[in-house]
Specification:
Keywords: Hydrolase. The chain is of the alpha+beta class and 208 residues long. The chain has helices at 90-102, 158-166, 173-187, and strands spanning 12-20, 25-32, 38-45, 49-54, 60-68, 73-77, 80-82, 104-116, 125-136, 152-157, 195-196. The longest helix has 15 residues, at 173-187.
C-alpha cells in the first residue's frame, strides 16, 4: 500500500458559520460517521498560506522574530503570509512575502513541502518554498505595521536551527517543518530534485 494522503469527503447534512472574522471564519458541520450517526465538527476556515525558507550561499536561513499574541511568545519564524487573493499563484505570494518582510529576492525557487497546519481544527494549507540565490531587493523597503513593525531579522546557520528545533527551543510550524525538510532533502536526492515552484497544489488550486 502506498503511504499517501488521499482526497475523501464524508456527507455533511447541515452547516453553519457562527463566526466570520477579517480573514478567517468558523464553520460547524454536521458530519455522517461510518456507523451512520452524525456528529458536529467545528473548524476554522482559512484562505491558505505560503512560507519561504530562504537559504543563502553560506548555509544560513533567513529568519524573523515576531510577537504572536495567541501563544504569548516572540517566535523565530521564516517569512510567511496569507493567500489573500483567491486563486493567486502561491509562488507570486511567496515572492511578495520575502520582499515585504525581508527586502530580499531570490533567483531559484522550488517547493520544499506542503502541509496542513492543524487538520483536526483548521483547513489551513501551507506551501513552503525553498528560495536560493538571494540578493537585496531593489527600491524602497515595504512599510510594515502592527506586530511586524517590531520584527527582528537574522541569518542563522541551518545546523543551529536544527539544534534549536530538537531542543524544543523553536516552535513555529513553518520553521520547524521547513528546516527539517531541508535537512532531509539534502541527505536524500538533493535540493535540485525538489518539485518545481509551479508544481500543482490540490489543496489550493491556482492559475499559472
Amino acid at each position: 500500500m502506498a503511504i499517501k494522503d488521499t482526497p475523501e469527503e464524508w456527507t455533511v447534512t447541515a452547516t453553519a458559520t457562527p463566526f466570520t472574522g477579517n480573514k478567517t471564519s468558523v464553520r460547524t458541520d454536521e458530519v455522517v460517521m461510518p456507523d451512520g450517526g452524525t456528529v458536529k465538527r467545528d473548524y476554522q476556515v482559512h484562505p491558505g498560506s505560503v512560507a519561504v525558507l530562504a537559504l543563502d550561499d553560506e548555509g544560513r536561513v533567513l529568519v524573523l522574530r515576531q510577537y504572536r499574541h495567541p501563544v504569548r511568545q516572540r517566535l523565530w519564524e521564516i517569512p510567511a503570509g496569507l493567500l489573500d487573493i483567491p486563486g493567486e499563484n502561491p509562488l507570486h505570494a511567496a515572492q511578495r512575502e520575502l520582499y515585504e518582510e525581508a527586502h530580499v529576492k531570490a533567483e531559484d525557487w522550488r517547493v520544499l513541502t506542503d502541509v496542513y497546519t492543524t487538520p483536526g481544527g483548521c483547513d489551513e494549507a501551507v506551501r513552503i518554498f525553498l528560495a536560493r540565490d538571494l540578493s537585496a531587493a531593489e527600491g524602497e523597503r515595504f512599510e510594515v505595521s502592527e506586530e511586524e513593525a517590531d520584527m527582528e531579522l537574522a541569518r542563522v546557520p541551518q545546523d543551529e536551527l536544527v539544534r534549536g528545533v530538537l531542543a524544543g527551543e523553536l516552535h513555529n510550524n513553518c520553521l520547524v517543518v521547513g528546516v527539517l525538510a531541508l535537512t532531509a532533502a539534502q541527505a536524500g536526492e538533493g535540493l535540485d530534485a525538489l518539485r518545481p515552484a509551479d508544481a500543482p497544489w490540490p489543496a489550493r488550486p491556482f492559475e499559472a
